[in-house]
Amino acid sequence: MRRRNWFVLFPTCCFLVLSLLLTTGLAPAPPLATRIDDLLQRWQVDQAFWGIAVYDLDADRMLYSRNAEQSFLPASNQKIFTSATALDVLGSTHRYETTLYYNGDADGSVMRGDLILDGSGDPTFGSSQVRGEDPLRAWAQELADMGVERIEGRLIGDDNAFDDRPYPDGWTVNYITEQKGRHMGNSVGALAYRDNVVPVIVRATRPGAPPNVEVQPKDAVSITNKATTSSRWRGNTLQVNRTFSTNELVLTGSVARSYNGSLAVPVSDPTPFVLRSFVRRLEEAGIETDLTLTDIDDLNERPDRGSPLFVEFSRPLAEIVAVMNKESDNFYAEQIFRSYGWGGSTKGAARRTKSFLREAGINTRQLLIHDGSGLSRKDLITPEAMVKLLAHMNEHKAREAFMASLPSGGERNTTLDYRLHRTNVKAKTGSLEFVRALSGYVRRPNGHRVAFAVFANNYTGPSYQISRTIDDIVRSVASMAS
Fold it and tell me: First-to-last CA distance in the chain?
């Protein structure tokens, strides 16, 4: 009798326990797919066109997929393709070289002949993004220390490692012509210096009068100053616009009467800017100059290089790629893109990228690649291709450098500075008008690593709601067991 009572009571007890769990809010969590679907229905985010792929690298299975084979604007997620291809083609230890050659004769303290400044596309040459001595200033000072007091002849810029198209297809024109805060559309060149931006120093004068404007180096750009000094002590409406494909700047708006600042304005033709900057550094070092500044393309025949005077080596590519991804630096991305491209062109770089992707087993027929940064609105990427690339790089020989280049959740001075704190995630952000994206890696409670890609295009609601939803999707992947 006791045994029969036990089996009768057991199901009843189970039912009571289950009822208690349900009534006290301890019911099993919904599966991951349900949670993601619910997140995509809240607020106004359901209006967006969503593409999502979540792939368990250890279990080798897709955990969630939505429009994963459709093409999306990736914004700066394009930099993941650029960095992966660069690390594969060039290698993590690759260093750029910028060389100053001299072909001429010295007469005491006077150098006569040709100085040839030869670039290989180094984005870090004199860049504000990396610490170190300005190489042009260092070279000028070293010449002065050698006793050089005057240089006569030609200063030639060799930028032939890249083609002569400074901008990719698909960039919005105001990326190039407008200067509002941080520059976006810097011109590209094999001979680059200081991020290809010129400092424009603006100082207030008296109310109603134009502010004083100074450019370093002089003649790097021409300026039409339509701005005024206001009577306000604070508050500026200053704007700097540039005529497309020229170095003609127009300043409008006003500056407060206390204003004393500097704007970094991209130049349209980097080579003359680099040459003028070197002349300025020479003169600052006390060296007189009588130099004709020449782009090597303007010469009828290639000059004899002579002997190298100085060579500047960049940091390893692994460190450069880290700056590009962590800070989402568009200029670095475009320089790196051209560096591995056949012929130093965007088309050659796109073909090289697709070749690498096909070697990784990725279908490239639905991909369009027009630049390295993701500023182009002609770029199209599928979430499926992104997670397959992330899976490939997880096993790649450059895995360590690639992983180290991606921002971690909450990492300071990166694009994830204020996002995904306390989440075991490494990912690249993407942001354009009506576009948000996040792709990378996250670790789940069972220890499995997951590659994910989340794209949102064509939304009309607030961007912050899209970004919060993306972050909540990633948190769900990181926290849910199934």
Answer: 43
| CB-based contacts of 175, cutoff 8 Å, min separation 6 | 184, 185, 375
Q: ∠478-84-470 over CA atoms, to 5°?
A: 30
* pLDDT per position as a tens digit, 108-163: 999 999 999 999 999 999 998 888 899 999 999 999 999 999 999 999 999 999 99
CA distance 416 to 428: 8
**Helices (H), ranges, 293-345:** 317-327, 330-340
The pair of three-digit structure tokens given for residue 310, joined into one six-digit string = 């100085």
161 within 8 A of 358, measured Cβ to Cβ:
no
Q: State the Cα–Cα distance between residues 473 and 451, nearest whole angstrom.
A: 13
Q: What is the DSSP letter of 302?
A: P
pLDDT digits (tens, 9 = 90+) for 253-267: 999 999 999 888 888
For the chain, how big is the Rg over CA atoms in Å? 28
Task: Provide the token pair at 418.
Answer: 């204020």
What's the one-letter identity of residue 79?
K
Low-confidence ranges of the chain (pLDDT < 50): 1-26, 181
**Burial profile 262-300: b = 16 or more Cβ within 10 angstroms, e = fewer:** ebbbbbbbbbbbbbbbbbbbbeebebebebebbbbeeee
Q: Do 81 and 357 contact (CB within 8 A), yes or no?
A: yes
Residue 423 in tokens:
């989440």
Tell me the one-letter amino acid at 325.
N
What are 180's strand-pairing partners? none
Residue-by-residue DSSP string for 102-150 = EEEEEETTEEEEEEEEE----TTTT-TTS-S--HHHHHHHHHHHTT--E
Residue ranges of alpha helices (H) inside 362-462 are: 383-394, 399-405
pLDDT of residue 3: 43
Instruction: Kindly list the structural domains of the chain, giving each domain's residue range(s) and its CATH number in brackets, ordered by start.
Output: 32-93+317-479 (3.40.710.10), 97-164+271-313 (3.50.80.20), 173-266 (no CATH)
The Cα 268–Cα 188 span in angstroms is 9
Query: Rounded distance, CA 432 to CA 410, Å?
Result: 21
Residue whose pair of structure tokens reads 């004769």 in the numeric block: 105
| CA–CA gap between residue 389 and residue 363 (Å, rounded) | 11
8 Å CB contact between 298 and 156: no
Q: Are 317 and 87 in contact (CB under 8 A)?
A: yes
User: Measured at the alpha carbon of residue 196, what is the angle toward residues 193 and 201, in degrees to the nearest 5?
Assistant: 105
Q: Are 46 and 406 in contact (CB under 8 A)?
A: no
Segment (H or E) for 456: strand 449-457
Cis, peptide link before residue 217, omega less than 30° from 0: yes
Q: In this predicted structure, what is the pLDDT of residue 28?
A: 58
